[in-house]
């Protein structure tokens, strides 16, 4: 959720809260203490007042490390003194493997077990599991890609209610004590190549936004966050996408921006009416858009590399061939990870590789040559995050590069942990949360 007119006021209020929190050394202070959704409090990947550490290892600056009962690539969210994660855990005896038969299937995992789909609430200061709520148990209809998971949609909270979305397994609203308030089935997705599901729900005001793009009937819908009642639902002429919608407030009006194969589109949050659309991306859109400086930035990299910078002012109808597209890029663009917008720099990774680009967001001009991140050896699926004048980029091999956010982007550290990481990090107060395929880490200096 992005409201740039209010950002300075929010930050000023957060500074007051920060002083009290620092004195008591306690979490739970708005922008300082929370990471309530995918891509953080501003949906840009930035935690404006967090102060995570620079250095860590398996034996250094680990406040706690706990085993997880199931695999998932959803980002942990943080609110108050709790961390919430979604998991998909195999249960019961193995059954005869069921293989996906979707056209073009490759590198898929067979389904061999029933799974529990659950939310965990974890004590932020000691890692104790407060509660586990199993929301669904079923035999999944597809196994997904070998690098994917059955719990890749990140949860979201407004501090009172928590929303967990498992795609074909349903949407669930809980209070922060784990009591189920309502649930809703949206049907069964048939994703491209049966590679799984991943778009996360988004909150804004009284609305919960869900994108349902797949090989069947795609849609975007807004639900009443308190009841699950449908407010509006718009059909979308789209194929499978895994990107998360972005709510942007521009010129006093909130709109939902969705990045996908055929078009990047903006919709009126109040009614669902489409405001504008722009072609230019390729298939298999995974990377989520970011917004700032009166613009939206969306990119992907599959059939070809593409990034679009869209001016929101006056955007109406099909803007593909208009000056509302401020600039385009056809190289170095991201595939799975999403861009990071930090102050006056747009950062993004080349495909899934360890090459970092830096652009001036309004003009699209490079801020120096692309940087190869030495020390990151494996694929990078996690999206970059930032705080305290630093960037944090985590690779699947367990290594995280920490870079200075300045004109040089000097490498400050490469930290390694013994797990495989696809989930994006969460930053809150003095902590950095990294969710691996086996463990959840809370990283913090003493």
Outline the low-pLDDT stretches. 2-31
What is the CATH class designation?
A: Mainly Beta
Instruction: Work out the helix count.
Output: 1
Instruction: Work out the radius of gyration.
Output: 20 Å
Question: What gross morphology would you assign?
Answer: globular
- Give the name of the CATH architecture: 7 Propeller
CATH-assigned fold name? Methylamine Dehydrogenase, Chain H
Mean pLDDT: 92
CATH superfamily: YVTN repeat-like/Quinoprotein amine dehydrogenase
Strand order of the largest sheet: 14-15-16-17-21
Domains (count)? 1
Secondary structural class = mainly beta
Largest sheet: 5 strands, mixed
Cα(first) to Cα(last) distance is: 32 Å
Number of strands: 33
The percent range for strand residues is 35-45%
Question: How would you describe what is shown here?
Answer:
The chain is mainly beta. It has one domain: YVTN repeat-like/Quinoprotein amine dehydrogenase (Methylamine Dehydrogenase, Chain H), CATH 2.130.10.10. The protein is 5% helix and 39% strand. The strands form eight sheets. The protein has a five-stranded mixed beta sheet, with no helix packed on it. The longest helix has 21 residues, at 4-24. It starts with a helix and ends with a strand.
